[in-house]
Write a structure and sequence with these properties.
Layout lengths: L6 E6 L5 H11 L3 E6 L6 H9 L3 E6 L5 H14 L2 E7 L14 H26 L5 E8 L10 H21 L4 E8 L6 H6 L1 H4 L10 H13 L8 E4 L7
Parallel strand pairs: 1-2, 1-4, 2-3, 4-5, 5-6, 6-7
Helix pairs in contact: 1-8, 3-4, 4-5
């Protein structure tokens, strides 16, 4: 049964680290969290943990690159779950290849995941938020949102595009009551991938040298709670020892 009194936070790309932490943070504040990944089964542990902690969560499988699927996702949420008050787009798509080894398929796939999917999420969020005159849309960026590096032609191109999308949306939607923010995550995050593949970097965790997903999630919550006279559009987050 639909409950339009219930506020919904949608986390697109609710992975095992940052996305999951963001979902849990909003759930603790009483939001019904709709967490999405391409494969719904992968969301089961996150949904279970949120529910065990007293929150409400629904895991939905959705390919964020598929326009029809994304339209259907927001339609389902609005009609069956509640009003979308927050959308966090958190798909990574980080790859590294020398330019001569970057195939057209890789370049296109990374763009679809990090840029086109962000556009679809932002557009559909705007459609449901505009009539209510309120809402928060947060896009997760990276170091590559600001500068390209060797081997990151595909990733940086997509992240540059996502940043431009966020800027354009902020200028268009801000005057209409919708807060659009872009976060730059500049540094390694405490994930299994970093632990297993970059042990020297992971060893810096004890010194606060890598980003804690829970601390990132807290900043996303604070972005959402900002009063409209003091909105942040771009927020960069990095460990104290990370170089600019």
């Amino acid at each position: 049964m639909t409950n339009n009194e219930q506020q919904v936070a949608v986390v697109i790309g609710a992975g095992d680290a940052t996305g999951g932490a963001i979902a849990q943070r909003f759930a603790r504040e009483g939001y019904v969290v709709v967490a999405t990944r391409r494969h719904q089964d992968a969301l089961a542990p996150l949904v279970k943990e949120i529910e065990e902690n007293g929150g409400q969560a629904i895991g939905l499988g959705c390919d964020a690159r598929d326009e029809e699927a994304m339209c259907g996702l927001f339609s389902k949420i609005e009609s069956e779950i509640g009003d979308v008050g927050v959308v966090v787009f958190n798909i990574g798509a980080n790859v590294q290849f020398p330019i001569t080894e970057t195939t057209g398929r890789v370049y296109r796939k990374v763009w679809e995941m990090a840029a086109f999917a962000g556009f679809l999420a932002g557009r559909e969020a705007a459609k449901v938020m505009l009539p209510r005159g309120r809402g928060t849309i947060i896009f997760t960026g990276a170091t590559a949102s600001m500068r390209g590096g060797p081997g990151f032609a595909a990733f940086a191109s997509a992240k540059f595009a996502l940043r431009a999308l966020a800027q354009s949306m902020a200028r268009e939607l801000g005057p209409k009551g919708i807060h659009v923010a872009h976060s730059i995550i500049d540094g390694a995050i405490d994930t299994a991938f970093i632990r297993e593949n970059f042990p020297d970097r992971y060893a810096l965790k004890a010194q606060g040298g890598i980003l804690d997903p829970d601390h990132i999630a807290e900043q996303y919550w604070q972005l959402h709670k900002q009063p409209r006279d003091c909105w942040t559009h771009e927020l960069d987050l990095r460990p104290w020892m990370e170089t600019f």
